[in-house]
Write a structure and sequence with these properties.
This protein folds into 2 domains: 65 residues, RNA-binding S4 domain (Structural Genomics Hypothetical 15.5 Kd Protein In mrcA-pckA Intergenic Region, Chain A); 205 residues, Pseudouridine synthase (2-Layer Sandwich). It is built from 6 helices and 15 strands. The longest helix is centred in the middle third of the chain and has 12 residues.
Length: 284
């Protein structure tokens, strides 16, 4: 815990301005959250961000949520050159932090240490995102120029993405295109649904194999909407196994894996990267 005694220089100033001065390495919005989480106190009581200071006030700041470094994790590297690192993201790992008050390890925090990145920010080096519940191939950038180069390809739909999923039941059409707009679900803002007023979304699917109650399906999205594959599969009546948010039966994980990624690297070489199918996908 850090203790700060207010002197004449800060008389009549707002408390949040003092903290922004004390923590110049962080964005003011991040520092302000210390007040939201009651981590700034005066006389044992939470201090409000806009409260005016008096000479002699003793401010106590619990800043571990802000300054603690995320723990180290291991992530398999598929490919690396001077511009990029391609990884096989494990299931359960976030692509990037949800904000300054999320101290868990992420792909972004791993990359910062692995590639010795100097830039600041929760999303430095993150070109695209895989959900926490999705494993598989993911490309990251070592430099701002490489990040911009790669992100432009995603935005212009020049990247070919292939996923595999295990879904409930057997699909009537073994190979088809799902073309349904996707919008946020007003009844549950953390989820999405198909709807006429949503943004265009298209997914190609192909059944690879079937068991008694499930199908292994190859998925090729031509757009990149949030939760697109999960929403589309639910919409056709075949939710992904484990995806309880979208109607799937409970399982050890959501059975969605980013299998292959094809794009042009900053060195202008067109390459394809593959992340092997996890062993738990076999036998379901």
């Amino acid at each position: 815990m850090k203790k700060i005694r207010v002197d004449e220089n800060w008389k009549g100033k707002r408390a949040d301005r003092l903290l922004a001065f004390m923590y110049p390495q962080f964005a003011r919005s991040a520092v302000s959250k210390l007040f939201d989480h009651k981590q700034v106190q005066k006389g044992g009581a939470p201090l409000k961000a806009g409260e005016k200071l008096h000479v002699g006030d003793e401010i106590e700041v619990e800043d571990h949520l802000l300054v603690d470094k995320p723990p180290s994790i291991e992530i398999p590297v598929i490919y690396e050159d001077r511009d990029v690192v391609v990884i096989n993201k494990p299931v359960g790992v976030l692509s990037h932090s949800k904000g300054a008050f999320n101290p868990e390890a992420t792909v972004a925090s791993w990359l910062r240490d692995y590639a010795h990145l100097k830039e600041k920010g929760d999303r430095v080096g993150i070109v695209h995102r895989l959900d926490r519940t999705t494993s598989g191939v993911m490309i990251t950038a070592k430099t701002p120029d490489a990040q911009s180069w790669l992100q432009k390809q995603f935005s212009q739909r020049k990247v070919k993405k292939t996923y595999v999923a295990i879904v409930e039941g057997h699909l009537d059409e073994k190979e088809a295109v799902i073309d349904m707009p996707i919008e946020r679900n007003p009844a549950n803002p953390k989820s999405f649904r198909t709807g006429a007023t949503g943004r265009p979304a298209t997914t190609q699917h192909k059944v690879l194999s079937e068991t008694d109650g499930h199908s292994l399906v190859e998925l090729r999205p031509t757009t990149g909407r949030t939760h697109q594959l999960r929403v589309h599969l639910r919409a056709i009546g075949h939710p992904i196994v484990g995806d309880t948010l979208y109607g799937g039966k409970p399982a050890l994980r959501i059975y969605l894996h980013a299998l292959e990624l094809e794009l042009t690297l900053p060195n202008h070489e067109r390459k394809s990267f593959t992340a092997p199918l996890p062993p738990e996908f076999e036998g379901i």
